[in-house]
């Protein structure tokens, strides 16, 4: 699953283009792993959210369902806002109070 392109990290859709977050070498290695489940033990500021966002954007563009699960609402809020900004107004339906987007 190529997530990172040298020429600009952009996936062009029919109505918009979306930026996939740029990944570092360790993140690219995990993202390209064919393993169904990926378990990470990483420190703060390693880029777990960025990696998760890149995988979520790629899969949602491919038409797959994506869930973002976090222990608290506060921990899930930042990725939700980033996802909404990334797909700004290119969704078919958005339900803000349920944090639900159909692309």
Given the C-alpha coordinates, what overall shape results?
A: globular
Strand content: 5-15%
N/C terminus separation = 20 Å
Average per-residue pLDDT, rounded, comes to 77
Output the structural class.
Answer: alpha+beta
Uncertain parts: 3-16
- H/E series, N to C? EEHHHEE
The strand count comes to 4
Give me the oligomer status: single chain
| Major sheet characteristics | 2 strands, antiparallel
Task: Determine Rg (CA atoms, Å).
Answer: 14 Å
Could you characterize the architecture of this molecule?
This protein has 103 residues and is an alpha+beta fold. It has helices spanning 25-31, 48-61, 73-86, and strands spanning 10-12, 17-19, 93-95, 100-102. It has three helices and four strands; from the N terminus they run ββαααββ. β1 (10-12) and β2 form a beta hairpin. The radius of gyration is 14 Å and the shape is globular.
Annotation keywords:
3 helices; alpha+beta; 103 residues; globular; 4 strands; 12% strand
What is shown here, in short?
The chain has 103 residues and is an alpha+beta fold. The protein is 34% helix and 12% strand.
How does the SSE layout of this entry go?
Blueprint: E1 10-12, E2 17-19, H1 25-31, H2 48-61, H3 73-86, E3 93-95, E4 100-102
Antiparallel strand pairs: 1-2, 3-4
């Amino acid at each position: 699953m190529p997530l990172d392109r040298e020429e600009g990290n952009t996936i062009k859709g029919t109505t918009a283009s979306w930026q996939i977050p740029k990944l570092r070498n360790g993140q690219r290695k995990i993202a390209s792993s064919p393993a169904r489940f990926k378990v990470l033990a990483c420190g703060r500021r390693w880029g777990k959210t960025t990696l998760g966002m890149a995988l979520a954007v790629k899969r949602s563009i491919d038409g797959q369902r994506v869930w973002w699960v976090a222990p608290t609402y506060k921990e899930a809020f930042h990725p939700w806002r980033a996802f909404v900004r990334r797909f700004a107004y290119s969704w078919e339906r958005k339900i803000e109070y349920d944090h639900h987007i159909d692309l």
